[in-house]
Amino acid sequence: MISRTKPELTNAQIQDMFDAACLGKVKSFDKLGDGEYNAVYDVVTDMGNYVLKVSPLDKTGILTYEQDMMRGEVFWYAQIRTHTNVKVPYVYYKDFSHTVFPSDYFIMERMEGEQLNKAALTNDEKIWCTEEIARIISKFHKVQNNEFGYLQNQLYDNWYLALRSMTVNLIHDIKRAGRKTGRGERLLKYIDEYKSLLEDVPCSMVNLDMWYGNILCVRKTEKIELIVIDPERTVWGDAIFDFVNLEFAKKLDKKTISLNAYNSIAKTKINCTQKEMIRFAFGIGYLALIQEAEKYYRYTPHHYGWWRNVVSCKFLYTNAFKILKQGLK
């Protein structure tokens, strides 16, 4: 995907990075993946195959929560490897000093497999993948903390304070781009209205971005294995927010496949109570606000991504406000 934030690297620059990591002489490299923020390269050296990930050079053209986001990604890879049995790449080397290259980068294991959104699956395999992703998310949510928010911004004592700050930051990002967001302001008012509900939310590791492009699919004889990549948008927050990307277009209580699989191993089950539905509404509303802000920083109206975000955030806002307006009835 074309994006204005991705840096373009030369062979010499990549070789400098691999020299610093003592990972061999670069034989070839190619751009990799569908990500829309960092530059990702598939690199082959005389020592092996690797993935190089490089953060944007221009820090003024990114959203507030994306500042130093790569440092958080390395942290979340470590959390997943330490506290779960979910398969993720191993990080061989990281450099946040800007001495070799003027932005953050790291080098990780090159995993076999293809992105799940590009895999040819049978109907039964698609159902199994939906179930397995929900089980993976359930494992993530067992990793808990006593403070909420993005590592790269500020952590807070409860989810109300964190979500409010995250929302305010996105509203300010849109204003910084010379735009206004009436729907973002409306979402913020609802956050204040449901303050007491949000203050009671438990704190979990929440991926926020479990779409098929961030999952690798590996076939082993008749078995499929899923590998999680790009946990960079992970936050300490409300577990229900991860259900936004599971069976994407459905309301929480209609995500039957995901709910059954999740609840089969979950520490805390999701029962689709009215309070949980409202928390889910904030999840889809927050994603809508991210997509609204992103289009000003990633694209121009000539990009497909701009119009995709316009349509998607309208759909998400509509559904979020419908639930939030109904309230605890």
Keywords:
329 residues; alpha+beta; five-stranded antiparallel beta sheet; three-stranded antiparallel beta sheet; 9 helices; 42% helix; globular
Structure description:
The protein is of the alpha+beta class and 329 residues long. Helices cover 42% and strands 15% of the residues. The relative contact order is 0.13. Strands 1-2-3-5-4 form a 5-stranded antiparallel β-sheet. A 3-stranded antiparallel β-sheet has the order 6-8-9, covered by helices on one side. It is globular and about 65 Å long.
Topology summary:
Blueprint: H1 11-21, E1 26-31, E2 39-45, E3 48-54, H2 69-83, E4 91-95, E5 105-109, E6 114-115, H3 123-141, H4 159-176, H5 182-193, H6 195-199, E7 204-206, E8 215-220, E9 223-228, E10 235-237, H7 256-265, H8 274-298, H9 304-326
Antiparallel strand pairs: 1-2, 2-3, 3-5, 4-5, 6-8, 7-10, 8-9
